[in-house]
Amino acid sequence: MSTAPGTAPGTAPWRDPALPAAVRVDDLLARMTLEEKTAQLYGVWVGAATDGDGVAPLQREMTADHDWDELITLGLGQLTRSFGTAPVDPALGARALARAQRRIAGAGRFGIPAVAHEECLAGFTAWQATAYPVPLAWGATFDPALVEELGGRIGQDLRAAGVHQGLAPVLDVVRDLRWGRVEETIGEDPYLVGTIGTAYVRGLESAGVVATLKHFAGYASSAGARNLAPVRAGGRELAEVTLPPFEMALREGGARSVMAAYTETDGVPASADPRLLTGLLREEWGFTGTVVADYFGIGFLQSLHRVAGDPAEAARIALEAGIDVELPTLSCYGTPLVDAVRDGRIPEALVDRAARRVLLQKCELGLLDPDWTPESGERIDLDSAGNRALARRLAEESVVLLDNPGGALPLAQDARIAVVGPRAADALAMLGCYSFPSHVLTHHPEVPPGIDIPTVLDALRTELPGAEVAFAQGCGVSDPDTSGFAEAVARASESEVCVAVLGDRAGLFGRGTSGEGCDAEDLRLPGAQAELLDALVATGVPVVLVLLTGRPYALGRWQGRLATVVQAFFPGEEGGPALAGVLSGRVNPSGRLPVSVPHRPGGQPWTYLQPPLGLAGEVSNLDPTPLYPFGHGGSYTAFAWEDFTGPEAEIPTDGGYDLSLTVRNTGERAGAEVVQLYLHDPVASVTRPDIRLIGYRRVELSPGEARRLTFRFHTDLSSFPDRTGTRIVEPGELELRLAASSADVRHRARLLLTGPVRPVGAGRRLRCEVTETEA
Q1: Mean pLDDT across the chain, nearest whole number?
Q2: Fewest C-beta atoms under 10 Å: which of 85, 348, 546, 646?
Q3: Which range is the signal sequence, renumbered to this chain (predicted)?
């Protein structure tokens, strides 16, 4: 390492951990050349493919070769996906990353290492790392504490491998179920997404890893559910549906990074929007961390959005908007940016602003300290017994029993069972598109998965050793071939019960039926699976439908014709045993739907968050009412909701109100109930959703056990943007509804808010606290 002239080695203020970070960074910036400052603003993707299909959109077109040795003499902002690009033994990968960091630090004047980032959407996206359930399954648990534990474990694995930043969670709220990335989201309700996502952020950040919120903002509202299509959401939808999860994860979770979305809203790309990335995010919400580009998102300002004429102009627009780091590699923030600053087209102050934020974060991470070392010193076991136990518990809690009218489940221990379907004997049926086997190993077919992933078929045979289990695939996931139907029907006809395991194949950019760039025209089951299910039902043998999907599919065609319906959203490497446990009765299902299940394939492109004209009515022949509503889920036990306390009351527009009830397990086995609190605003100055979730509590009870729950409502939770865009609490009537789903209301409390209209700001209460005591 060299220091500025006249400064003794080791005594520069920026190297002194005792000084405030801001003082250290200001001193460092003053010593850096323009080229050294810009080098902190981009990442490099070593080993990314520049030919053929890649793991990111337009990777081949947007990735160029760079002279690594020359590049790192200036320093480097980020290292892109050392583990997530190709299969590498984790221990060897950690050593290689440490060597690369030493080379980076040794090559530059200041000895500053890079921030290493990785994907961690459903676990560390690395070979031999635990593949956890996808975020949609997190939402199905309604269990923030469990998801926080998940975030902590993933963070520990990242940190042990030398990774500083995780590109998760996805806080996009589902608006159209046909969108391919539904599996990556937590659900269709902003309160559920916010509370579960914030829990994950707390876990990841508790391990010292920077959580990156994505995609900011509006990505999931793309027109026609097409990936990257324009967003035609209005300001009210953004304020009430899109933005609240991000605000909660920043304020309550402490996320230190945000990723700008690819999409445009009303003609302005998110990566070019200073009102979003600076005005709202920093000036209103007080965010002080780093804003990173989604992969190639700055270059897309030129190539896709066409709001920039060349890479230098794209760099200027993105810097002005507030993007600090170009990912995954340098295209615009490298030489084009330096040249544009030199010739006066871009103010150097924009580079300084971004570099200061990047270096402040590196200072927080200890990367500027004289005793920094790239080796974590921690043992690396990315699929430990503890990880697998957590993956199993998360999978078990996420399975949703949609229907069991005839009590076909649990299965008898000695039953004759036909297991049929394209998802029954395929390990990849358990995994989402950002799991390493689905995301990367498809390009390396010669490499084994690196983790044990029991299939439903194998797990069921293990779970029920006394049962007679036959298997037939029946058909593929997405092809129309029906030649396997005859064998499937024969196996079903010979059995006492048929378990039909259907669903999605996760992939990227059209290589799957679910995943990034795998958007659906409608919500029919893919390929010939619907026809296979018809054929199985026609045998007269009771059919237990098990769905392994990344989105819900329309099931009204089989309403009343199936013995049981079980929904799992890509439940991870332990999903097979979890599902087998539900089918056998060892596991009492407790998941609840984070997204509604539609009745008809094309009749419900929206979600439950609808004002009156978005609901069924006489003005249209199309009925969007779901077959199974948001929050729905069954159990093998029963619960009574007793002693409700919620009388009619008047409270001021800045007041609070408590409502309580006792939940009792009246069945013969332990189980979990999820009590949900919804708000109904009968008359308001702007149209409001008929109901919306504002609180919930998952409560686990032994047979006969009871717990008293108290929901502490504050009027801030009823606030909304008025006609001018100002968020207010409005006087008038409200109704609070305690419910088992958005359509199953058990108790109501009517309130009258009195007093003046009250504006509320960024410090408003974002959640309904719930206390639990012995009954």
Answers
A1: 94
A2: 348
A3: none
- Return the percentage of the chain with pLDDT > 70, whole number: 96
Closest of 564, 558, 541 to residue 403, by C-alpha: 564
Distance CA 182, CA 570 (A): 11
Q: Residue 32: name the closest of 467, 372, 348 by CA.
A: 348
Would you state the pLDDT for residue 6?
Answer: 34
377 CB-contact burial (10 Å; exposed 0-12 / middle 13-18 / buried 19+) = exposed
State the pLDDT at residue 605. 58
pLDDT tens for 140-160 read 999 999 999 999 999 999 999
Q: Running DSSP on this structure, what letter comes out for residue 133?
A: P
Three-state SS letters, 231-266 = ECCCHHHHHHHHCHHHHHHHHCCCCCEEEECCCEEC
Query: How crowded is the C-beta side of 235, counted as CA atoms within 13 Å?
Result: 11
pLDDT average, residue stretch 628-653: 96
Tokens 């030489």 locate to: 335
Distance of CA 386 to the CA centre of its chain: 22
Q: How far is Cα 194 from Cα 138, in angstroms, rounded to an integer?
A: 12
* Chain Cα centroid distance, residue 282: 23
Among 158, 176, 144, 167, smallest CA distance to 216 is for 167
pLDDT attached to residue 606: 76
> At 692, is the pLDDT very low, low, confident or very high (cuts 50, 70, 90)?
very high
Q: What is the pLDDT of residue 47?
A: 59
DSSP-derived secondary structure for 454-491:
--HHHHHHHH-TTSEEEEE--S-SS----TTHHHHHHH
To the nearest 10 degrees (0 to 180), the angle between helices 385-398 and 144-160 is 150
pLDDT at 1 exceeding the cut of 80: no
pLDDT of residue 695: 98
**To which H or E segment does residue 396 belong?**
helix 385-398
Measured CA angle at 422 (ends 557, 138), to 5 deg: 75
Nearest to residue 211, comparing CAs of 264, 154, 261? Answer: 154
Q: How many helices (H) and strands (E) does the chain have?
A: 21, 27
Q: What would the 3-class secondary structure string for 507-554 be?
A: CCCCCCCECCCCCCCCCCCCCCHHHHHHHHHCCCCCEEEEEEECCCCC
At 558 the pLDDT is 98
The answer to whether 127 touches 490, Cβ cutoff 8 Å, is: no
pLDDT confidence of residue 9:
47
Mean pLDDT of 503-519: 96
The 10 Å Cβ neighbour count of residue 482 is 15
Distance CA 591, CA 586 (A): 15
